[in-house]
Amino acid sequence: MRSLTKPISFHLLCICLFINTLLLDGVVTHNIPTTTPVNVGVVLDLDSLVGKIGLSCINMALSDFYAIHPHYKTRLVFNIRDSKQDVVTAAAAALDLIKNVQVQAIIGPRTSMEANFVINLGNKSQVPIISFSATSPSLTSLRSPYFFRATQNDSSQVKAISAIVQAFGWREAVLIYIDNEFGEGIIPYLTDALQEINARVPYRSVITSSASDDQISQELYKLMTMPTRVFIVHMPPSLGTRLFAMAKQIGMMGEGYAWIVTDGMTNLWSLTDPSTIDSMQGVLGVRTYVPRTNELEDFRVRWKRKFQQDNPSIINAELNIFGLWAYDATFALAMAIENVSMGNFSFRGTNVSSSTGTDLETFGASQIGPQLIQALSNAKFRSLTGDIHFVSGQLQTSAFQIVNVNGNGERRVGFWTPKIGLVRQLNLANRSTNSTYKPNLGPLIWPGDTTSPPRGWEIPTNGKKLRIGVPVMVGFSQFVKVIWDPNSHTATSVTGYCIDVFNAVMAAMPYAVTYEFIPFATPDGKSAGTYNDLIFQVYNGTYDAVVGDITIVANRSRYVDFTLPYTESGVSMVVPIRDSKRKNAWVFSKPLTWDLWVTSACFFVFIGFVVWVLEHRINVDFRGPPLYQAGTSFWFSFSTMVFAHRERVVSNLARFVVTIWCFVVLILTQSYTASLTSLLTVEKLQPTVTDINELLRKGEKVGFQQGSFVEGILKGLHFSESQLISYRSPEERHDLFVKGSANDGIAAALDEIPYLKLFLAKYCGKYTTVEPTFKTDGFGFVFPRGCPLVADVSRAILNVTESEKMKQIEDAWFNKESCPGSNTMVSSDSLGVESFWGLFLIAGVASISTLIIFAAMFLYEQRHVLLRFNSEIAIWRRIRIMSRLFDQRDLSSHTFRKSELEDKSGNDSVQSIGIAGDSSNTNCPPSPSSYSNQT
Predict the structure, then answer these.
(1) What is the pTM of this model?
(2) Pair 931, 896: CB distance under 8 Å
């Protein structure tokens, strides 16, 4: 019985322990949530300081993230690989992580060269590649949806750099960059940004990462021989510090130089040797701006403590922007992994056991990849560097700070943002426009320890002289004259007006410019081509400039730049003049135009009529037979021309009219006298042609200077080739004028005003200029497009032309004697109606006004006659009655005083007019002179 009980008790005890174990396991399982590990690859250069800092920040980000979110179901498991600063090793590490470890994402690699192939691997395996330090814009061109750049694209800073160049007015900049994908990626974007502000890139200096100090020095010496003094450097600090050390050694860190470095160096300045700062004094840098916050400062302290514990051999390491971006990239990835935690974290089509572990054809594709990149794109959070949000896999452009190397470190002098441009203080409330035209920065120290901004270019003292091309001319040697050695056929000297002006301008420059004149000629000393051919030599680089009688015209400015003009502008026509002193029977009619003659005659007749109307009833001098009255009226009017009228004017209205008319006649006669005197005594010569259209109508031949752009003007005026004749000198032009158009000569010539002045001074009294004058910009000096010399030379031209020096040069080369009595511009000598229409208007209005007043007064006086008219009397009969009344003397006037029968005679005259009869008036009162003694 006991033996049976003992086994039963033992079995019951085992059952109870098993049940208790199950219950305890259930409690533990209930209290500790289940997590899903997710493999993530990390590919970094673990031997570099940037790699060590990045890995440290990644680990801290992972700890901080899950400390903040302990309830999350996923846990990132890092699988770290060392790329050993090698592109192939980085690609092999990424391939191993994707194929053998089946990571769901890869953080890294560090450089743009390493990232290029890794991105393609990620795209094929649907594994997101998140880089916090690969900045080359060329990676964007891969257009991989599985590439996320948790750092600023290098192209985002080019606008900030161009804003600095524009703010200081620099027109050229040389780009110096490393010869790899990191260096080359930014160049197209930087070049475009500079072109938008009209700044040229005359040269690109490419330096390999393995370049020796001698090779760097050789390249810098080449840059010294160029005029540009603005350099933009884009390379890592390892190469950049060597570049600046050599630049200081050969003298390129002195006054006059301007150096700008990209964030490829400024973001890593904290990792460089402090001793290298001395060779970078005055350098400007562009760096990503990270606002200082309490969270950032707290993280910086924690990071420094942890990094020192993990890397005790590294002393005084400083946290950089790439470490912060590594922290943000880890946060974003952990958040995205959690958002897809319900997905399938496995690969499809995988053959891990294959003996070829690195075969590109055997690895599969992550099934969670498409969901993961969507989650990364949707991730938005506030991080240590600011707001994190990926748009097309790229972080958005943030603000940049402008720093200036000075003393033992750097000093912040301003900011740049896409919206407000360059500002000294980052205060968005005070700025609303993108203004980069003025240096809105703090005080700057430039290379050479100066506060004056560099001009941006210089004529290198150890470089070649400026090669100045000059034209070789047969005529008009006063402008440019080349003297040749008859034995060696080489130019011994170059003189002339244009040469002296250029020498004076160069002497007025604020710095020394060395140059030499090179004639544009063939080996035998003849001209090598036209002026356009000479200008093209500047365009193709044969000459550095051209000096001579080169006219500024639009089509030439498409290939070269011109300075401001230093001569008068314009193209005019010169024609022979003829002696007009030969007798002319009708010369008296020339002072007035035919329309003025006709208008004056009409007004003489009109004024005579008005005076007759006003004086007929009260002035015996304007009475008598009709022909006598007409003759008297016209005689009176025309005699006012010489103020010889003897007839009295007794009416106040007539006196008013005569007074105004005498004023008009006075002006007309005086103007006629002056014009006729000028024709007979002053103006002796007249041009043979006064209108260029007359040449076209008659088919006359026209001359132009050989090789001049004036030929194009003539063809534009529709002159045919057969009408155009070229000449090379003033003497040849004179000979063509002597021959005349009918004998293979010319009737006129078109040329520029400086040449015409010289020609007219030489042949005084034989030629003159006539209209039209075509507008041009005068003579200017020619330089290559974008040449920085143009602005300074133009300012020097203004100084010379406004000084006494210009007059001295002109007096030395040109004959300033003027021809007595000559008139360079000929116009019409006759006076027209347009000169006197105001006077005629006054006289006409006054005359018509007096007629209206007289008619009103006359009708009012005869109102008793008008009232006696009945409706049966015809209109014409009424007019006849009133005409007869008008023809009667106005005996009530003080000029007609009668005897005591005056009133009775007045009544009889009314009855005799013919209200009841039609008899004519035969009563002729005595002359008003008989009443002169009566009152």
Answers:
(1) 0.63
(2) yes
